[in-house]
Amino acid sequence: MSGLSHVELELVRENVHVEVIHELLVKGCWIEDHDHRCIVSQAQIEFSGGFHDSYFKISLKPNELLIESDSPWELEVLAEELKEIAVKKAMILK
Fold first, then answer.
1. Residues 50-94: pLDDT tens digits?
2. C-alpha distances in angstroms, 32 versus 25, 27, 45, 63?
3. How is residue 59 annotated by DSSP?
4. Which residues in the chain belong to E strands, given as ranges?
5. Which of 21, 37, 46, 79 is at a distance of 20 to 30 A from 7, taking alpha carbons?
6. Is the dihedral of CA 3, 39, 81, 14 positive or negative?
7. CA distance 80 to 64
8. CA geometry: angle 77, 42, 2, nearest 5 deg
9. 3-class DSSP assignment, residue 18
10. Cα–Cα distance, 8 to 52 (Å, whole number)
């Protein structure tokens, strides 16, 4: 793994909870409901595994989301998947 890239997203809705993000990821087929490879906490979702053995972490902060991934392509697609609740502010690729 070469370093993590990340993207900052600004929330477009108030009161977004990590459960809403989790539901969008399940709906978009990123993860399965009750997936043992996915760790969900109060303000974060972390996933490692899957078809491409990838890693991503989504952190919920006041008024923004931070997505980190070892795949710049995956980062773009995740940001697109979450456009219902957040819009892109900045992206840093490594």
1. 666 789 999 999 899 999 999 888 888 899 889 889 888 766 665
2. 8, 9, 13, 26
3. E
4. 5-11, 38-40, 44-49, 54-61, 64-69, 86-92
5. 37
6. negative
7. 15
8. 40
9. helix
10. 23
